[in-house]
Amino acid sequence: MEFQIALLKGDGIGPEIVDSAVAVLEAVGRKFGHTFHFTPYLAGGCAIDATGVPLPDETVAGCKASDSVLLGAVGGPKWDTLPGNLRPERALLGVRSALGLYTNIRPAKLYPALKSECPLRGDIVDRGVDLVMIRELTGGIYFGERGRRTGKMGEEAYDTECYSVGEVERIARVAFETARKRSKKVTSIDKANVLESSRLWREVVHRVAAEYPDVACSDMLVDNAAMQLVKNPAQFDVVVTSNMFGDILSDESSQITGSIGLLPSASLGESKCGMYEPIHGSAPDIAGQNKANPIATVLSAAMMLRYSFDLEAEARCIEDAIDRVLADGLRTADIVGNTGVKPLSCTEMTDAILARIQ
Ligand code: IPM
Ligand code: MG
């Protein structure tokens, strides 16, 4: 089969990790007889430098015309002082919204080989971590009304959290469908003791839950969830939550699996065209030094094969290669811990993954 993939390499370590995922996709293509056509587009800080805007129209059009989008990371200190609507992060939010990618799937699992990298106590680690965070991605406070005005104590700034029944229903369905393929358990995370938007969220989740009597559903307040994630992460399987809570809790879950450099994500909407990206950022401190961990981006490419192209065996082939790389004791700097192992560079790790794909 043939597929068109838009590449948004972005900033910082973005180009290095995307190059790594491209090499892996090409190897999978050779092995299974598929052709992937890659077209790069500007997004983020590099787009600001070249065109003055973080998300040029050409990039949006290119993404829409592709079968899927692979993104590295955007942002960096160089662009940190720009006004909100011109920041590199606008590119990400813009693609999510332009392509209607309302579902963000962020699996977090602790690899047996990386138990020593988990910062939690041994008995907690032994119970394992294997959860999927389903984060709402095109609504909530990220896209609500915002602004500045004059208040009683001087200038004020505000952002609004707003969710509609339709938005909650569709993300809840994704969570319940996902749970049906896993251990049939959904935890919905909100702040219903304070926020009206969370009370609506909870009502709608309960209505949808009634359509899935085979799936157990429970609610958890977000502050408690932040605590439970480090106290007993094994209790979670499918987690569904709002845009901002999902942003925060997915970083927390990544750390308990050892490193944010390991976690992939898929952003999906109604069409097959999704956007795939690591959950980490552009890591400007190590950019251009060939030190980044490419695993999160390579695993994101595996998710692309699974969700956008229905290539399950090909996706598993990549995931198995990552399992073996880690089981063989190979480490990049972020996961080397105190193993005493010499950390691999980004390209060396890529080569090690490729060697396990052929
Ligand atoms: C993420 C990132 C983004 C987000 C930023 C870079 C806009 O943190 O994908 O988790 O907040 O969604
Ligand atoms: Mg984030």
CATH top level of the largest domain?
Answer: Alpha Beta
Task: State the fourth-level CATH superfamily of the largest domain.
Answer: Isopropylmalate Dehydrogenase
Name the helicity range: 25-40%
Mean pLDDT comes to 97
Number of domains: 2
- Side by side, the strands of the main sheet go 2-1-3-12-11-4-5-10-8-9
SSE order in H/E notation?
EHEHHEHEHEEEHEHEHEHEEHHH
- Total beta strand runs: 12
> Structural class of the helices, strands and pairings?
alpha/beta
CATH architecture of the largest domain: 3-Layer(aba) Sandwich
Q: Profile the largest sheet.
A: 10 strands, mixed
Q: Give the ligands present.
A: 3-isopropylmalic acid, magnesium ion
Architecture overview:
The chain is α/β, with parallel strands linked by helices and about 350 residues long. The protein has two domains: about 1-105 and about 260-358, Isopropylmalate Dehydrogenase (3-Layer(aba) Sandwich), CATH 3.40.718.10; about 120-255, Isopropylmalate Dehydrogenase. It is about 40% helix and about 20% strand. The protein has helices at about 15-30, 45-50, 55-65, 90-100, 120-125, 165-180, 195-210, 220-230, 245-255, 295-305, 310-325, 345-355; strands at about 1-10, 35-40, 70-75, 105-110, 130-135, 145-150, 155-160, 185-190, 215-220, 240, 265-270, 275-280. It has a ten-stranded mixed beta sheet with strand order 2-1-3-12-11-4-5-10-8-9, with helices on both faces. Strands 6-7 form a two-stranded antiparallel sheet. Helix 10 packs antiparallel against helix 11 (about 310-325). The longest helix is centred in the first third of the chain and has 19 residues, at about 15-30. The mean pLDDT is about 95. Magnesium ion (MG) binds next to helix 9.
